[in-house]
């Protein structure tokens, strides 16, 4: 539609007028240059159901929201990238989980020959965010945890009903399939929020002065006594569960989707898988595992990840925005409270920016000198930009690097020859690959991974 109607056009969805923004320049003009004007969220019914109605991701733009975001952002950074000690601890959580993932992959291959990896990847990513938020991981067979992860899949299936009710609220007035699905959507949100509230309650009962075990502890210490923002608003203990809920829920779906695409692309392009393995072997050798310090020396690994994000555009649109005031973009007047759709796909598939955008080609991000072209990577739009930019972006990229580098270092991924060799996708909360199955073999033995985890356990026991 952008090719036909331009970078700014209006559509009618049910009772709502919606302005769609396309193209890198237009989107950045709105979200960065006029960030406050476009920082709102629509008053959608479904948004009020997420994270107990106090969601940071889905909440309206206000002084309270700005104070809430500052606390959430600083805490996420403290547990991922800004503090060397916690960054290393986070890396250790990730590597330990990848070891468990590889063991499950090898076991599934032995049992079934070819298996679908999507659910396993979802549990693996949920386990990492669980370690970050709650200080513990779960067994892949844990009933409670499988139930939580299963809710995420059901959420994806029912979120479309929420979208329809948002623009056609009268669908709630009489029995129909959308009303039933919307009821399921409402219940899933309540159940997930209850799970998070229970974890926060457990943390409050066992927290010790001066010891921060995980991100939930950090939020409890920051908010339980009341935290006054620079703008005078007061955040209290009731904001702890919704903050944890947002971080846990958002990270789980986006990261597991990204990893599904990476695994699919590894089996669809075996020559690229081989090149990844060669680069990692040359830099890391076979005696240790890749670490976050190796990232600058692995430009093809990073190029593969950025091209996977660009090509799949697994977040083709952001959560809908709304205007907080009368404003304009590209000369078009846009009234206050207008619903705004941000078309990230249009940025990642712009033929003027990307040669053959429908072709998967990681080398587009590698310069003539063999380095990663960081100017070009900055043009890939997945985590949004401006005031609503995802606070977990760096945390997610760190995980994607370690997953990709370590899996390439340790494993061979093989396509099921009985399945069509496609790159098709299906739309839910994110753009996921259509179901596919794989086999996984080890490139050596588990010795290096086992030694890494054993050394970690010894270090923990000696503390």
Automatic annotation (TrEMBL):
One of its GO terms (molecular function) is steroid 17-alpha-monooxygenase activity. Keywords: Endoplasmic reticulum, Heme, Iron, Membrane, Metal-binding, Microsome, Monooxygenase, Oxidoreductase. The keyword Transferase does not apply. Heme binds at residue 390. Its cofactor is heme. InterPro entries: Cyt_P450, Cyt_P450_CS, Cyt_P450_E_grp-I, Cyt_P450_sf. It is a peripheral membrane protein. SUPFAM superfamilies: Cytochrome P450. One of its GO terms (cellular component) is endoplasmic reticulum membrane. Pfam families: p450. It is found in: Endoplasmic reticulum membrane; Microsome membrane. GO terms for biological process: hormone biosynthetic process; progesterone metabolic process. The keyword Methyltransferase does not apply. Belongs to the cytochrome P450 family. This is Cytochrome P450 1B1. It comes from Acipenser ruthenus.
